[in-house]
């Protein structure tokens, strides 16, 4: 025979589950979808709540890669995002964008760039000229992290590695137009 469920515990557990699912859904729904955030960003729903839209992170970015989202993004308007197909993150060693954040919306990770990933990078083998046996490798040579992030294999094709930060340097270095390399928002767990 099972133990009777306490009414308060039943409703508390149900409420927590509901809020957790709603938080995940709201983060993407109210912001118009996922966005590539600066390094050290909280999960999307928490980020939207913590970011004051002060613009300090954008001002600290030496290459102006961080831009505030426009009004078309609803609740996310004014929050910082990166469009890596326009401007790569230059991976500043001390992460001034996160250092200057007055809230915990952006926090400098303990190990800085080691283990930090701001976007997921993919290579389109249909578009990449190396997959048509044309010698290239420009993306790998441009990678600021090195071979543990992006290298050319023995067939001359680019291969992503475990240390890729998703900075986007390879996107702008790619010689195809449009680029054979793209950045995608990564899932952040709350």
In short:
The protein has 190 residues and is α+β, with helices and mostly antiparallel strands. It is 26% helix and 11% strand.
Record keyword descriptors for this entry.
two-stranded antiparallel sheet, 190 residues, alpha+beta, two-stranded antiparallel ribbon, 6 helices, elongated, 6 strands
Report on the structure:
This protein is α+β, with helices and mostly antiparallel strands. It has helices spanning 7-29, 44-50, 56-60, 96-99, 138-142, 169-173; strands at residues 66-68, 80-82, 120-123, 150-152, 158-160, 181-184. It has one domain. A hairpin with a 5-residue loop joins strand 4 (150-152) and strand 5. Helix 1 crosses helix 2 (44-50). Residues 27-31 have low confidence and may be disordered.
Q: How is the topology of this model organized?
A:
Elements: H1 7-29, H2 44-50, H3 56-60, E1 66-68, E2 80-82, H4 96-99, E3 120-123, H5 138-142, E4 150-152, E5 158-160, H6 169-173, E6 181-184
Helix pairs in contact: 1-2
- What is the molecular shape? elongated
The string of secondary-structure elements, in order, is HHHEEHEHEEHE
Cα-atom radius of gyration: 20 Å
The residue ranges in which pLDDT falls below 50 over 5 or more consecutive positions are 27-31
Number of domains: 1
Strand content: 5-15%
Give the helix/strand class: alpha+beta
State the helical fraction.
Answer: 25-40%
Number of H- or I-type helical stretches: 6
- Please tally the β strands and state the result: 6
Mean pLDDT: 85
Report on the biggest sheet: 2 strands, antiparallel
**Strand order of the main beta sheet, please?**
1-2
Distance between the termini: 36 Å
């Amino acid at each position: 025979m099972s133990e009777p469920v306490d009414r308060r515990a039943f409703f508390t557990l149900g409420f927590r589950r509901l809020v957790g699912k709603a938080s995940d859904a709201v983060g993407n729904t109210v912001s118009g979808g996922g966005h590539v955030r600066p390094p050290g960003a909280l999960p999307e729903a928490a980020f939207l709540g913590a970011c004051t839209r002060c613009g300090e992170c954008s001002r600290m970015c030496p290459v102006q890669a961080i831009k505030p989202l426009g009004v078309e993004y609803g609740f996310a308007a004014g929050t910082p995002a990166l469009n890596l197909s326009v401007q790569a993150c230059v991976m500043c060693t001390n992460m001034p964008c996160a250092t200057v954040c007055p809230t915990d919306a952006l926090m400098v990770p303990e190990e800085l760039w080691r283990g930090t990933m701001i976007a997921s990078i993919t290579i389109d083998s249909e578009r990449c000229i190396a997959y048509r046996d044309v010698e290239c490798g420009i993306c790998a040579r441009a990678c600021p992290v090195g071979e543990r992030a992006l290298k050319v294999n023995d067939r001359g094709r680019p291969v992503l590695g475990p240390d890729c930060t998703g900075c986007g340097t390879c996107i702008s270095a790619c010689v195809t137009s449009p680029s054979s390399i793209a950045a995608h928002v990564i899932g952040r767990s709350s």
